[in-house]
Amino acid sequence: MKTTRLFLCLVAFLSATFAENPADAEELVHFESAPVKLSPFRISKAREQGEILSQPQGTPLLGYLSRPRGDGPFPAVVVLHGCEGMRLSVKELWPKRLISWGYVVLVVDSFTTRDIKDTCQGHLPDRVFDAYGALSFLSKQSFVDIRRVALMGFSTGGTATLEGTKIEGNEQLMDQKFRAAVAYYPLCAATQGDATVPILILTGDRDNWSPADRCRKRLSNLSDDSPPIELNVYKGTYHDFDAPEFKVGRKVLGHIEKYNPDAAAKSIRSVRTFLQSYLSN
């Protein structure tokens, strides 16, 4: 009898504790990519020609939502995976790290609902709209401070991050805006120029999949009015250097992917400082 009472008391205590402090475990959520909005020019031309335009629709997506304990509202980070899909470090390690720093995290799964296995050798969907669909989803959550949300991407997700925060890109058509962006080993567009938000780019000098020189050339094209773009290039470092699942290293389509613990640690510190600088208030 005493054992039963103790067990019931323990259950009651744990239930009350978790009711007051929501678990930070990931939750599978459903949302849509932002619809491809029509430009004012396209709308005006349709009116001139008497054309009836259909309402644009988004693509159904899945996401993994994690949050710190408490009611918030918290700053948040939207995460975009690379061409291989939802690897361990993107789906689990980075969210746990970001939660410990006080951020809500939404990792966007761009492949499952599109029945895509990987896009390393094929066509990529326009994932900029996935990122802004995730931002729209977060804007409806009471525990998120929608004024303080960053976009963070890895490899092709990093490239989409840069595409989604460039001057005169699709960002100008979106209702909500990101506050800052982090891109791990993206393929920079050397002629892209200015950004719409502060950006941190992290890459390796031996990465021949996402050459650092292209990022350096982009920075050389920035105007005096552009938000800052910080480029950290780590010596002796390859693609996926932050991912401990690649400790042994591997070659994919002629490109080396290999974990570098020293570069990973330095980059993690840089990301934390960068997010604190731009999402603190």
Automatic annotation (TrEMBL):
Single GO MF descriptor: hydrolase activity
Q: Which residues form the Dienelactone hydrolase domain?
A: 63-278
Record's SUPFAM superfamilies?
Answer: alpha/beta-Hydrolases
Signal peptide as annotated in the record: 1-25
Q: What is this protein called?
A: Dienelactone hydrolase
Pfam families reported for this sequence: DLH
Task: Work out whether the entry's keyword set contains Disulfide bond.
Answer: no
UniProtKB keywords: Hydrolase, Signal
Q: InterPro entries, from UniProt?
A: AB_hydrolase_fold (IPR029058), Dienelactn_hydro (IPR002925), FrsA_esterase (IPR050261)
